[in-house]
Every structure is written in C-alpha cells, then in structure tokens.
Amino acid sequence: MEPTGNSSDSSDRKTGKKIVASSATVKPNGKSIASSAIATTDVSSPVPVKPNVATDLSSVHADQVMLFRDVSFGPREAELRFRLIHFWEARNPLTKTLIGQEMLLIDEEGTAIQGFVPAGRVGTFDLTDGVVYKLKNFFRSRSKVQYRVADHIATVSFTWNSDLAVLDNPPVPFPEDRFRFHGYEEFRANCDSKGDLYDYVGHMKLVNGQTISDHIVLDEVDISEKRHICVHVQTHDGPVMKLYIWDKAASDFCQKFKSYGGTPSVLLVTTVNPKHLGGTLALTTMSSSRVFMDADVQPSKDYLEWLSSNSDIANRVAAEVVTKPETVTLGEIFSYIKQEGSKIAWFECTATIDDVVQGSAWYYVSCGGCNSKAVKGPTSLICNSKKCGKREVTGVPQYLTKISVYDESEQAVFVVLGDAGKELTGKHASELVASYFESNAGVDADHCVPVPQALLDAIGQKRRFIVKVSDHNLTGKTQTLTVTKILPPEAPQPIEHLEEKANPSKGFEDAAGDMVRKASECLESGEAKRPKSG
C-alpha cells in the first residue's frame, strides 16, 4: 500500500514533540490581518498555547484542489494551495555548487511539507515569503532522510510544466507559520544524528559573553568577521545550552536585536542542528534557520508572557551545567584515553608550560578561505583541500605550535592551533611572521622563521587549557593533545566555540604576500630553529 500524507500526522503523536501552527486571516497580497496559534500536538509545558476555532473545509474545495495529506507519489496535474513560509538555497557542502531552492510550505489544514526547485529552474518562479500561492503540475518525490524541516514523507518538486501563481482572495485562512519545538532532552537524544531539524524557544542568558542588560552592545564588525554569534539560552529552568547563530541568521539576529527599544529576552530559532561541541550539547543554525524575538510570532509571545510571570524560575541557576567541560588532571586524561569505549571528548586542565617543542615548525601557512594548508604551486599558493575548491589563494600563517606541559600528576605534549595561539601570546601568527621578515629583509627564501619571543615568554606560565581527545588519541596514533582554547589566567569566563576553525587575520594581504611565500617554502624544506637572541 502506498503511503499518504496522513502518516506524517501519526508521526507527530509518536515523537511527543510540540508542534504549533500560527494561523491568520489573509488579505489578497498574503499579508495577515489577525493571528492566533493552534497546537496540533502538545507536550507538558508551562507555555500556554491558544486554541483556534476549527474550520470546515469541505465546502470550499473543488475536486481538482488537493490537500497535502492527499498527495500521492509521482507526477500530479492537480492544484495545490499553500502559503510559502520560507525558502532558501541548497548547496553542496563540499563544492558549494547550487543544488536548488528548498521551501517550507503549509496548506489550509496546517499540514507542512517541503518544496524543491531544481537548480536549473531557480529564478523561474517569483517567490516571496508569506504569500499564498496555487501550484498546478508538480512531482511528489520522497522526502530526504537528513535535515528535514517537516514531518511529511514527501517533497513537492517543481517540474518543467509547473504553473505557480499568487492566490488572490483565498477562500479560507492559511496558517502563517509552522513550528516544531524540541527541548533539551529531545535535542540531547538526537545529538549528532543529522536527522530532522527542530525549532528552539527560550530566553537568552548571554550574547557573545555579555550578560543580557539594557546596555548590551553588539560588535557587528567582529560578528561579521567571525560569521557567527554565540548565545547562551535556557528554556524555563532547564539546562543552559549554547546556540551558535551563523551567517544570514546572525545578521538577522543583529538587526532584530537593534530594532527593539529595550533589550529583547526571548529567542526563537527554527531548524537548529544539535551537535556535540567542546564536549557539550550545542545547537547550530542551518541555511533554513530563521530568527524571532519577543513579540515577533505567537510562540515567542507566549514564552515572553510566561517569562514575565516566572522571572524567579527563569533566573534560577540550572543544576546541570552543560556549558563547561569537566575539569581533570593530565593523568586523568590519559586514563580516560586508555578506557575501553571512550569517545571523542573535551576536558579542562591546568598545566605549567615547560618548553616550546623544537624540531618542527611552530606555524603553517593556511588558505585564507578555509584554513586548510596552502602549498606552493607553479606561480602562487594553492589550497590543499578538495573541499575548498580554490586553486590560487592568499596564504595566512596560523599557529601549529607544540608545547610540553606538566602538572602534579603527569607530563604531556600539547599542540596549540589557530586562535588558541593568539590567546597564549596576544598576537596572530601572521603578525609574528610578518614582523620577522620586515626585520630581516635580506634573509633567503628558504630561511625558516624561528620561534618568536612571544611564544618563548610563555614558558613557566601556569594556564588553563581546553583540550580535545581525538580519534588519533583513542586509536593510539599519537599522545599529543590538541588545545582548542586557552583560558585567561585571572578568572573563569564562558567558553566560546570550541570546535570553530581558526579565524585568519584579515590584515595579512598582498603587501605580505612575498613574506608568506618565503614561510611556505621554508615549511616545505626545513626545520624551525630557535633564534639565538631576542
């Protein structure tokens, strides 16, 4: 028997998630004039969900108009009527090649389904978020397995003869949006599964390390360079989680945050991906993600109402701290590595720096775009990563420094990468390399940049490190531990993105190109030597 759209309704009941459809009466241009929320599936939650009066749909349908629940697989000539909630580009994660446009659609019954326009037809259809359309001629294919944004088992694909037009004066109201909420426990259960993408709503605790207050200022230049914002969030009195908001969603966050007269408290982000970052559960946005705050949509309004009445609960410190890796000794880290069944993990440890390991370069020259190693080509530097796709690149020196450390229990060798090196010395690797060549203009191209004084000055310092136990450690290929962050020696601070790639210095451009080439040639041929002085 061929499955139908009804199966998606039953799957809602099985998962226990909370699904909310916001409905509205619409004008001919698709803009709403009133809204309320309907819960199609509910879970126990202090957030109130306002019911809506059911609508009799049977009298307004001709035989040729099809609802999402009735769509069968294969080509169809019937007419679909729906609101386009949102659309976004789908690109190959490796080559960045455009695959097509993905869409989230909702019909008058509140059933959501994914839509798809192939790359060759992108631009053929005039699409606008929030508008109600009618579509004739389409193909219903099976929904993808990974990163789905709707429960429906099918996808509505636009074909060569698809006819899309705005539905003026819809005879019935179409819901404005569709939300599928997960809480901490559901996100944790589905962490790293690459499964369905669910929505999150809660209140903000920190934004890029700043406490929520009336005086908070967002550094938009820094956010633009790093391409993301880190927000600590909490739902009711549950555990605090990190939510990493990337690219367009980060830009939208800044615009919405500034648009409020006061500082907003509630954050709703759609289609987030639960991952283990830094050894803890974190949420990250995807291309399909949208950002809402306080009064933007009904679920955020409902949560704001709860927050206003339960500030004592919301401000209660969660019993389980999930934003901080476990603090251990070096000996305990090596014991963990030897345990059967151990997995990749992050730990915090305090150790004294004994020396900068000699015999290998303290930095590498990276592709300025993806941070992979750049190698010398016939006429320029080229990226060594197949994922990047760039043949000629601007090289940027990045830290790749081995240091020997010890505590009261054990000795170890750490490799310090990217931004962690700047946290140790206060300077980007690119600054130190450029400074050396500027002071030694007559050195040969094969001369290696020696270990700088800024690194040697760290010898004897007692610092707190966040280290990663990797697959290479667990399989016995190496005992060297990777440092992803070095914490300030003064006081604990919120730990930032522990798995983020190093952000290359933007100031090391064409003027330093020759210096970078010299460094690259050096890394290909020789050893890094410690300077005799200074």
Automatic annotation (TrEMBL):
Q: Where is the composition biased (Polar residues)?
A: 22-32
Asked if DNA-binding is a keyword of the record, the answer is: yes
Question: Residues in domain Replication factor A C-terminal?
Answer: 346-435
Check the record and name the InterPro entries matching this protein. Answer: Euk_RPA1_DBD_C, NA-bd_OB-fold, Rep_factor-A_C
Q: Does the keyword Zinc belong to this entry?
A: yes
Q: Which intervals of the chain are annotated as region Disordered?
A: 1-32
Against Gene3D superfamilies, the record matches this protein to:
Nucleic acid-binding proteins (2.40.50.140)
Q: Which UniProt keywords apply?
A: DNA-binding, Metal-binding, Zinc, Zinc-finger
- Pfam families from the entry? Rep_fac-A_C
The family this protein is said to belong to:
Belongs to the replication factor A protein 1 family.
* Protein name as catalogued: Replication factor A C-terminal domain-containing protein
